[in-house]
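Is it possible to get an amino acid sequence alongside its tokenized fold?
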Amino acid sequence: MPTPVALVAGLHATARTAAVDRLLAEHPGSVALHHDLTDVTHGHVRRTVRDRTGVLDTADVRLAHGCVTCTVREDLLPQLVLRAPGAPLLIVDLWDSVEPRSVAEAIDCDEAQETLRLAAVLTALDAAALPEDLTRGDRLRDVGKPAAAGDLRYLAEVLTRQLEYPTALVLHGGDAEDQELSRRVLAHLAPFTPVHTVAALPPVTGARVCAGELAERMDPATAQLPGDTRTDEIVTAVWHSRRPLHPARLFEAIDELVTESVRSRGRFWLANRPDELLAWDAVAGIVSVEAAGPWLAALPQAAWDLVSPARRLAADLDWDPERGDRVQHLVFTGPDLDTARFRTLLGSCLLTDEEERAGQDVWSRYDDPFAPILAKENA
């Protein structure tokens, strides 16, 4: 039977270590593997293997190309396969800025199915640091946490992916007030993910977890987005419309939208790009707009068989006789968010009745300030 594997991600080593220690104590005979990427930009990685009694082995790993993908492919997976026989649980203690998705997908692959079983993906969060981390505009390289040479990601960007992907979240540290605030924040940002303390970790040796299903919870076309919520000072507002957006007016509104919210995401469409599903992702004032493939309404019916059941279900739930699955669905979270003003601002970015009547031939000639951004993303 395949050996269960639990991933433990998180920006802060103290929180991850506490979670890993707990798993090792609860599963005698299990081992934890950690790759220290402090010097990964120079192609050097330090691997440590330990059990509940202490360190079993350390080794320096030299990589042809210093990156997380190389580390997983060239060292982590072979080590997991080597140590799987007889181990009740294998624990992967991920480096600070590693996003769990890529590692989960590498483990949950056809080649390793008979040996390894992805059983849990946890993210350990420092309750005292979480609220501030979500608002930090630092790049990983500026805080000593890059995962590869040329890593330009932002700390808050990585944190949101770490907490929105896993099967469970684990809070550690801070006082009672920190813990309560973190739980309120997570209820807005990851409302469908259970939150535990280190002392009450969930079972991690159960059925196989499908990495593809975890990815669908985050992918723009199928993402499980939060709903309208207010918890004390924290507000989440959902904006939904069928009418197309004017590219220039939306672009002008971006600064106000992202600076007055902490986290926002969703899918949208521009009048001049009716076939293109666009993904909105912003945190700590840093916004990303990317093309995420076509709307299903833009594809021939025969092509629907080539997309996942989750994608078809999401399209069915959003289907409109005139627009198909084209929709504006954006979600904003922030402290004391003025939801009425946000919705008014976004509504002003939609085409007017007169602009809508002008039709697609006119829309296609609109100036599009998003064009350079999308061209760069697709390059």
Q: What stands out?
A: The chain has a mean pLDDT of 93.
